[in-house]
Write a structure and sequence with these properties.
The complex is a heterodimer of chains A (82) and B (334). Chain A is mostly helical and 82 residues long. Chain A has helices spanning 3-31, 41-81. The longest helix of chain A has 41 residues, at 41-81. Classes of the chains: A mainly alpha (82), B mainly alpha (334).
Chain lengths: 82, 334
């Protein structure tokens, strides 16, 4: 069994876990508190929409990077084995 | 808070579901062989025929032990009834899929709709707790996350049910993680429901491990996935479950990302792995094949089927440790 390869997969899991927690903290500390001094419902809606959009975009970027990391690692390992 | 009574009921529920599954599986093996309900074990050179739909024993044992919990725990009846409804509906969807394969887009839709009892009966708290952040409030978004979460969990578990003992083994570790995390976080619902599902899966693993005497079928994998998602929501173990499910999520996410959408296993022409002449499995070099967790593991070199499952279980144990660490971070208020 290729233990080095298995440790690398464990490393990916650890990285994904750590960045997920850090990402959640980032969203909660920096995006959720965003406010605008206005009583207007439209403004409140727009602010809410922006928060959801910004958090969603960050989550998508995170998923994209995770997938890219695994793809690059997979093809590199497969080619190295042949 | 957890009482000693909860732990006694959890131990009793575990024993009931373990015994039922343990007794039921040999009976199902005989019956399914007689009726020709069998599937080909494609990862073995001799391609043996193995009885399918053994997950029916998991569904039955979960039903019986949940009814036991409804009888003995009067204060949590609403939660256990909801759990029962979700699991039975998803189990039926799985059984139908085993008999007549469903459309690959219809299956996640139906499993997502099976989450409705949780929303209708209000057996959730829309304030998930995260480490470092603490309690959050997701009043509007949370019900939508329940619907999505159930579809993701059921199908992620289903997608990892590819080798002998892979689903039962990894999900047993996952449920043990949820049980330990429930004790850490003081979730009675989490302890009781994890214990009964774990009991059933441990007994099933005995027959499903390499070389498998029975397959779980979609009735088993979808039932287990639904049970895990419902425990996560009602036991308030959302983030812990996501971390513990990392191997399942990785397998599903990278597969779907590499083939670009929802496809049924039989619709994918390029297989992720191939069986070598000596019985070992190797990663396919076809760029169109999905990057499943098994293919990722086999990129490091060919392995026997039982070795791949051992790596699956190792990854599940590691994810379980990270999940328990996450639960501890929540409990310590960090």
């Amino acid at each position: 069994m290729n233990y080095r390869h298995i440790f690398s997969i464990l490393g990916i899991i650890t990285l994904v876990w750590a960045t997920m927690l850090l990402g959640l903290v980032f969203i909660w500390k920096f995006i959720v508190p965003i406010s605008y001094p206005s009583e207007s419902y439209i403004m409140q809606f727009l602010i809410g929409f922006f928060k959801v959009g910004a958090s969603g975009t960050l989550a998508l970027i995170w998923l994209y990077l995770w997938n890219k990391l695994v793809q690059i690692y997979f093809w590199k390992t497969l080619k190295a084995g042949t | 808070m957890i009482s000693i009574t909860d732990l006694i009921f959890a131990a009793t529920g575990f024993t009931i579901s373990f015994i039922i599954t343990f007794i039921l599986v040999p009976f199902l093996i005989r019956k399914f062989k007689e009726k020709g309900i069998v599937g080909v074990d494609v990862h073995k050179p001799e391609k043996p025929e193995i009885p399918e739909m053994g997950g029916l024993s998991i569904l039955i044992s979960i039903i019986v032990s949940t009814v036991f919990l409804i009888i003995v725990c009067n204060n949590l009846t609403k939660f256990f009834t909801t759990f029962l409804m979700v699991v039975v509906v998803v189990g039926i969807i799985g059984a139908i899929d085993d008999i007549k394969p469903l459309n690959p887009k219809l299956k996640p839709t139906l499993t997502a709709l099976a989450s409705l009892p949780i929303i209708i009966f209000g057996t959730y708290v829309p304030r998930p707790v995260f480490p470092i952040i603490g309690k959050t409030r997701l009043t509007i978004v949370y019900p939508l996350l329940i619907i999505a979460g159930l579809a993701v969990s059921t199908n992620a578990v289903n997608m990892l049910d590819v080798f002998n003992g892979s689903m039962a083994g990894t999900c047993s570790i996952l449920l043990l993680t949820l049980l330990i995390s429930s004790i850490i976080l003081g979730s009675s619902i989490g302890i009781l429901l994890s214990a009964i599902t774990l009991g059933s899966l441990v007994a099933f693993f005995y027959y499903n491990k390499y070389p498998a005497k029975i397959f779980s079928g979609d009735v088993g994998s979808l039932t287990v996935g639904a049970a895990i998602a419902t425990i996560a929501v009602m036991g308030r173990l959302e983030i812990v479950t996501i971390v513990a499910m990392m191997p399942h999520i990785m397998n599903g996410f990278h597969s779907l990302a590499s083939i670009g959408g929802l496809l049924e296993r039989r619709q994918i022409k390029a297989r992720p792995t191939k069986v070598l002449a000596d019985g070992r499995l190797a990663a396919s070099k076809d760029p169109k094949a999905p990057i499943t967790l098994a293919r990722l593991i086999l990129a490091g070199g060919p392995l026997y089927e039982n070795e791949v499952v051992k790596v699956f279980i190792l990854l599940s144990i590691y994810s379980g440790v990270l999940a328990i660490l996450t639960a501890l971070l929540i409990a310590w208020g960090l």
